[in-house]
User: What shape does this take?
Amino acid sequence: KDAEKRTVTEDGRLMLEKAEKDRIETVWDRYAAQTPQCGYCEMGLSCRICNMGPCRIDPFGEGPRQGVCGADADIIVARNLGRMVAAGAAAHSDHGRDLVEVLAAVAEGKAPGYGIADPDKLKRVAAEYGIETEGKPPHAVAGALADAMMGDFGSRRKELSMVRRAPAKRRELWRKTGIMPRGIDRETSEMMHRTHMGVDNGWQSLLLHALRNALSDGWGGSMIATEVSDILFGTPKPSANTVNVGVLKADQVNIIVHGHNPVVSEMLLQACQSPDIIDLAKAKGAAGINLAGLCCTGNELLMRHGIPMAGNHLMTELVIATGAVDMMLVDYQCIMPSLGKTASCYHTLMISTSDKARFPGMTHREFHPENARDLARDLVKEAVENFGRRGRVYIPVEPVPSLGGFSVEAILGALGGTPDPLLDAVKDGRIRGAAGVVGCNNPKIKHDYGHITLTRQLIENDILVLDTGCAAIANAKAGFKVAEAAEYAGPGLKAVCSALGIPPVLHMGSCVDNVRILLLASALADSLGCDISDLPVAGSAPEWYSEKAVSIGAYFVASGVYTVLGPMPPITGSMNVVKLLTEGLNDVVGAGFAVEPDPEKAGILIRRHIESKRKQLGL
Ligand code: BF8
Ligand code: SF4
Assistant: This one.
């Protein structure tokens, strides 16, 4: 059956069948309608950067070899990829900036409901920025930190502040190669400039700048997003949660938050917990109010508060098809513009909340730091009112238990304050190494098959898995994130996990939280006195779709982490670009990309890489 070809998850399959019965069109149907997709575009060989075009290069060498301007395949492919990085870096970094705005508003007392949840972290980060913290109240420190972070965004000429967290050898390499990131917006803006017609036509220099642009995301925009979120809302600690469509409750008001920025979802959580609104829900015949998440804003709540997770990217339409969602609130990124239409078949109220993200079929109710608390309360009340308008609901599965909240601070805490016990386990071979399994879903790959298959193989072979984003949700649904999941691990990893009481797959958060993986890798490299590229670690994005994932992959590689992509990026039109990314970069940044859509084979690539790094370290 079709549903079985589309997803490996039980709730996904059952919901796909329900959607079909309800005649709901899904992302898979639209993907099928798009196939075969344009071969020029798949290879990165089409260009519509200027109005002399659009142009395409004939990959078989029979038709045009150059665009109207004279750009060849190498230039066109490199420019297109560079623009993907720029868009991804911009998305993460603009999200980071929104948090800095909230931090500034908190400092000014203009953000009722928000506060400083982790004053210690505020102090630590402020000290890194050279801000005097002694004897100053948190709000004053927050204001100074917000100002200093704003300075990281614009035309900054100096090195980005947070790069100081990278190992010294890595920073030296970035300087030497000319890819040390400066202002966050500056690198993105420069990427757009360089790819304008008639600017940078060196495919190598374009790709190097793409790495610098990505680094301005990983060690800049995303890192600021994560750190400021921790300061405002709390640094995650391990806590239990539940995952899959079964987290929806037939007898409760179900509110779903979807998107990325915790600025909105945190206020929703507060409102859902207020006793007067819970009483209102009970007066309307509901047993309570159930807040659950989708995608990364869900991950933010899961990490900090153990809020249940309804699903990842490809589940977002299907969750609505339960008929049990009384309200869905979205902020931005990865929100399919189809959702409003899907919801129109049910009673679900769809609310868009960000000044920069509108969607058809949604009501726009804009959140700002000043009005967020009150607006969240109003909206939760509206969701409660909507509970009575429900039709029949279909919640076909029981939720799966899972453990989240593994910030670097929490991991080091579990290890007794230093990475040494982890390093000892790596040195004596109980743990062979670590791998990040991150990123999206993509209808080109069977839903969650890539994540689950790769993760299972890695832990079976004693490789600790760190995951984020939609991959983390897939792995939680597969049951890899309870202490008992140590059973799935090889003997060495199993022993370590059992001793520490942790699962073999650690949920490190949302996609901006990939920086937590960078920071953990830096801590390990510092302890060993080596560079990140010397470590037995790897990254992977088995089902990636988004431009943000391109930026993440590029900053992982530029930071020295070998990274295996599932779906092929649009680069095969230029063998020069393919070769540079998969081979040449090793000589430049000590790491490169591989592409392998089959997760079983991707696992073998990662294991081979980890074993070769162990050998180089003499382990
Ligand atoms: O930032 S993993 S589909 S939800 S892009 Fe999007 Fe991809 Fe999911 Fe989160 Ni990340
Ligand atoms: Fe064509 Fe060159 Fe314009 Fe691209 S930039 S659309 S290749 S003329």
About this structure: The mean pLDDT is 97. The chain has four domains: 2-56, 73-233, 245-387, 407-616. The chain is about 50% helix and 10% strand.
